[in-house]
Automatic annotation (TrEMBL):
Substrate binds at I123, N147. The keyword Cell cycle does not apply. This is Formate dehydrogenase. The lineage of its organism: Bacteria, Bacillati, Actinomycetota, Actinomycetes, Pseudonocardiales. It comes from Kibdelosporangium aridum. NAD(+) binds at residues 148, 202-203, 222, 257-261, 283, 309, 333-336, 381.
C-alpha cells in the first residue's frame, strides 16, 4: 500500500468555509481544443467547495483510504524541520500545487527513496527538478488545461486593471475621496494598442481570443507556429523571438512555462528594448522576470505597470520588493485556483491516481516526465537544458 504526501495551502484565516457565495458551477464538457475534462470514476467532493486548502484535501481521503493507502496532508513545506521534509523520506507519491509549491529539489529527491510519482494539482511542474526526476525514474504528471482558462481570464483582468488604472481608482473610493484627476492621469484605453503574448499555448491562445474583441493589434511568439487559419481569424502577427517582438508592443503577457530557456528572460536588457510606458503581465512564473530589473523599470518609467500572480519563492516573503514597487497590480498566486479550477484539478488528480494505482496509462497530455525522459505535454513544452 502506498503513502501519499499532499502539500496544500493553509485554510482561510477564519476557518474552513461553512457556506459559499454561489450554489453551483457552470457545466463544462470539453476544453476549447476538444480535450475532455477530467474523467475519474467518481469524486467524493462537492464541486464549488474549497478543495485546495488543507481541510479540503483535494477530496481524496476516502478514495485513498478505502484502498488501504495512507494520505498525509500538510501545508508545512519549507525547511529541513518541515512536515514535508520529514514525511518525504518514505512517501511513494507527492502531490503539490503551484500556488503553494512543495519544491522537489535534487537533494530532496535523493532523500525520497520510495518516490515514484509527483503530481501537480494544477499546471506547471517547474517546482520539481525535472532533470533529477528523470534521473531517479520518477513520473511527473500535471492536470493539463484544468486552469488555463482561469488564468486567461485573470490576464485580461490585469491588463485592463493596469491600462485603465483601476486599482488606484478603487483605492480613492475606499479612502472616501473623489479625486478624478489623480485617477485619470494614468488611465488609457486599451483599444488600438499592440498586445502580444510570449507563448501561445493553451493560456496564451485563450488570452488572444479574449482580447480580440477589444480591437487591439495582436502579436505572439512561440516555439511552434499556430495554424494559419487561427492566425488569420485573430489577425495575429507572428514574431520569431521574444526579443524581436517586444519592441513593437504596448502590452506584453507572458504565458510560457519556466524552464532553462525562459528563466530570467525579462531582465534589464530585454526590458530596455520595450516601448517606454509598456505594461508587462506575468502570470506564468515569477522567475521568468528578473525581480530587481522589474522594480528598476517601474521606478524609471520604462514600464508603466507590472501585474501578475507568480513570485519566487512562494509564499513570497513580507519584504519582497514586488509588494511595494510603484504601479503594480500583483495578487498572490490565485489565478489558477478559483473554486471552478479546483473542481477540475481535484478531479484530474484523482484520475491520475486511479490510473496509477489501477495500472492503466496516465493520459498522454497529463505527462511531463515518464520512463526516464520528458513525455507527453512535457516533451512538447519543456526543456531540461
Ligand atoms: P501550454 O503547454 O499549453 O503552453 C505553453 C506554451 O509555451 C507552448 O505553446 C510552448 O511552445 C510555449 N513555449 C515554451 N517555451 C517557450 C519559449 N522559450 N518561447 C516561447 N514559447 C515557449 O501551457 P499553458 O498555456 O496551459 O500554461 C503555460 C504556463 O502558465 C504553465 O507552464 C505555468 O507555468 C503557467 N500557469 C500559471 C498558472 C497560474 O495560476 N498563474 C496556472 C496554470 C499555468 P510549444 O509547445 O509550441 O513548444
Amino acid at each position: 500500500m502506498a503513502k501519499i504526501l499532499c502539500v496544500l495551502y493553509d485554510d482561510p484565516v477564519d476557518g474552513y468555509p461553512a457556506t459559499y457565495a454561489r450554489d453551483d458551477l457552470p457545466k463544462i464538457e470539453r476544453y476549447p481544443d476538444g480535450q475532455t475534462l477530467p474523467t475519474p470514476k467518481g469524486v467524493d467532493f462537492t464541486p464549488g467547495h474549497l478543495l485546495g486548502s488543507v481541510s479540503g484535501e483535494l477530496g481524496l481521503r476516502s478514495f485513498l483510504e478505502s484502498q488501504g493507502h495512507t494520505l498525509v496532508v500538510t501545508s508545512d513545506k519549507d525547511g529541513p524541520g518541515s512536515v514535508f521534509e520529514r514525511e518525504l523520506v518514505d512517501a511513494d507519491v507527492v502531490i503539490s500545487q503551484p500556488f503553494w509549491p512543495a519544491y522537489l529539489t535534487p537533494e530532496r529527491i535523493a532523500k525520497a527513496r520510495n518516490l515514484k510519482l509527483a503530481v501537480t494539482a494544477g499546471i506547471g511542474s517547474d517546482h520539481v527538478d525535472l532533470k533529477a526526476a528523470i534521473d531517479a525514474g520518477i513520473t511527473v504528471a500535471e492536470v493539463t488545461y484544468c486552469n488555463s482558462i482561469s488564468v486567461a481570464e485573470h490576464v485580461v483582468m490585469m491588463i485592463l486593471g493596469l491600462v485603465r488604472n483601476y486599482i488606484p481608482s478603487y483605492q480613492i473610493v475606499v479612502d472616501g475621496g473623489w479625486n478624478i484627476a489623480d485617477a485619470v492621469s494614468r488611465s488609457y484605453d486599451l483599444e488600438g494598442m499592440q498586445v502580444g503574448t510570449v507563448a501561445a499555448g493553451r493560456i496564451g491562445l485563450a488570452v488572444l481570443r479574449r482580447l480580440a474583441p477589444f480591437d487591439v493589434k495582436l502579436h505572439y511568439t512561440d516555439r511552434h507556429r499556430l495554424p494559419r487559419e487561427v492566425e488569420e481569424e485573430l489577425g495575429l502577427t507572428f514574431h520569431a523571438s521574444t526579443q524581436e517582438m517586444v519592441p513593437h508592443l504596448d502590452v506584453v503577457t507572458i504565458n510560457a512555462p519556466l524552464h532553462p530557456e525562459t528563466e530570467g528572460l525579462f531582465g534589464d536588457k530585454l526590458l530596455s528594448t520595450m516601448k517606454r510606458g509598456a505594461y508587462l503581465i506575468n502570470t506564468a512564473r515569477g522567475k521568468i522576470a528578473d525581480r530587481d530589473a522589474i522594480v528598476r523599470a517601474l521606478e524609471s518609467g520604462q514600464l508603466a505597470g507590472y501585474a501578475g500572480d507568480v513570485w519566487y519563492p512562494q509564499p513570497a516573503p513580507a519584504d519582497h520588493p514586488w509588494r511595494s514597487m510603484p504601479h503594480h497590480g500583483m495578487t498572490p498566486h490565485i489565478s489558477g485556483s478559483s473554486l471552478s479550477a479546483q473542481a477540475r484539478y481535484a478531479a484530474g488528480t484523482r484520475e491520475i491516481l486511479e490510473s496509477w494505482f489501477g495500472g492503466t496509462p496516465i493520459r498522454d497530455e497529463y505527462l511531463i516526465v515518464d520512463g526516464g525522459k520528458l513525455a507527453g505535454t512535457g516533451a512538447h513544452s519543456y526543456s531540461t537544458k
